[in-house]
Design goal:
heterodimer; A: about 70 residues; alpha+beta; SH3 type barrels; globular; B: alpha/beta; 3 domains; seven-stranded mixed sheet; two-stranded antiparallel ribbon; about 60% helix; about 10% strand; elongated
Chain lengths: ~70, ~650
Amino acid sequence: MTLLDTRPGDEVTIDTARAGRGAMRRLWDLGLLPGTKVKTVAAHPFRGPILVRVGECTVAVGRKLASRIYVTK
Amino acid sequence: MQFTVALVGQPNVGKSVIMNLLTGAGAVVSNYPGTTVEITQGYMEGPSGRITVIDTPGTYSLHSDTEEQRVAQRVLLEAGVDLIVNVADARNLSRNLYLTLQLLDLDIPMVLALNQMDMAREAGMIIDTTALEEKLQIPAIPMIASKGEGLEELEKLIWKAAGSPETLPARATSPMRFSPEIERVIGMLQGQIEQIIPEEEGKHRLHPSRALAIHLMEHDALDEDLFSIYPELAHLVEDLQEKVASKRFQCAGCFRGCWFCPAADDSHPVLPTCLERTRQAQAITTAVVRRCRLEGPVSTRVRLERLLDNPSTGIPILALVAYLAVRLTLEILEFAEEFVPVILEPVVGFIAGLAGSFRQGSLAEIIITAIPEGVLLPFEVVMPTMLSIYLIMALLEDSGLMPRIAVMMDRIMSFLKIPGQSIIPFLLGFGCRAPGVLATRTLPNRESRIVVSTLLAIPIPCAATLGIITGVARAFGADLRVIYGAIAVVFLLLARLVARCLQADSELVMEIPPVRLPSARAVAGKAWMRMESFFKQVLPVLMITGIGVRVLLNTGILSVLSRLDPISAGLFGITGQSLVSVAVTVVQRYAAPMVLLNLPLGAREATIAASMISLSLPCIPVSYLIAREFGWKTLAAIYGLALGITLSTGFVLNLILPAM
């Protein structure tokens, strides 16, 4: 499943991501690396961004990118 | 005493607050040469001399992917930094330590300023600073910069380091050690680097060879900034890539995922060095942080954050905040427009009085009558614009609301392929476009900033433009639907076109910082530092151009355009003199209707002329700001586009509009 399939309140572990180099690095910079546990906080309506909690901080990820971040429960 | 301190840290760690506390009001914000990235430079004054402090742009890592990261790197390598103050957010220790570990590789003496300790405690984290110092082998100072806590200790440490640099801990080895395979590759690259780059004083010019080797593993051959410092490296990289490609080079699998790897593609989720550095940062964090159970009721701050980050409550609140921010800016502008002329009245009156003593029509008289306009324009429009926009931007940024507004608007703005924050510049643009252009500074990259600025410069109607449109419509019975329709069509087409040409990357990944009450001192300090550039750079240029263009108008040089009558009537269905009004908009939008209203126009002519005016060249303040932010080339391109658009709008409307 991907990050896009999670619902608010779900806790998942990131397996891998497929994205362009720039987006990929920004993901790593914010700590969204393989093996990281994240918790989905909110999903904006009308296919807006998804908010996830990584450690003590919140990160917004656009839907397009979220659909390419693979996670397991 | 020559001693330079660089503040380095991730975004939202309170770096600028610490900068402000250290250097006070004398700091100067400027663009780093050749970039649009701002750096702040100031001085610490003390009995034993003066220390230069440079605030680098917030950067999550030292990779060279964004302009901010490259500027942070260049400051560290080129500015002769003697001491790094690494500002870290205690609450996000592990992510912040990633940058710390990268910085340690540079072999520059370093201090860790562990900021926002109060927030960490609020999140139930107890950090053993002594253990952290031992792990990293550098001094660590716990701080709450917003309350000034820990500042004294930091200042003392900096002065001590500046007074006797030999007391700084010599950093022989970074605590970061990679797995044996990776260390073998680093060793091999390090050997090659030491062979081709001459060693000076035990260092490879600016980088230690180990840092360079790691940097090479984490970047492809396109890191041009690095190669401009070390031209020799380009050959090394080319050579390695060629060897790897032709399989003459055995990397034994350890290169997996680094930029030399022939197998390096999307299937490698992460570079091995980055992954191991993250693991190391996590391990250190686990070792020094103790988690305690949170007691007592949930704080107001956390409750507010939950409210804002829940779309059903957050969206209405944030929409209101965005509206109020825009309203407030425009209120300040309106107030200034009434108030400033009153203050400047004696000056303007004096100059106008002078004009009387010259013969009417003489060059001196023309120049002198042009001066009041040149003086008023910067003070009446541009200065209050800049002041209010800087204040409101600082408020929205420091309170943590700006990123939340961006997220809220992301979906809608993604249709235009621009980031969600663009809503702020656009909303401002409906009032006055100059603050809109300045507010693009909150956008994440240069490409999107240019797209948004182009849209602001051409189709977005500011309050003055809207005034012209309604005025003309009332006087001549022009069709408002046609005018607004033309603006909307141009806006949509232009957004798609420019975004495509610049390939603006709209993929959203953004940190949402905690909500907090901004400190008045920090907000005022930020705004004031930026205002200094107004008096030094903006004011003189604006005065001179303002006066210059006014002189051109007063001499009547522009009226030669009336000779264009035949062409103008044929192409656009309007008189050549109406074209003058299009040209006049450059100076001041509200000067255009004066020209237009004095002409005998039919409803059809007025509709076309008003559409052309609303889609024509940006006014002087906006032009100047665009040139300052993005360079004269970008401005020239926008002028070209605007000319093309206004002329083709006239042409197309003349073709399709029936007689009215």
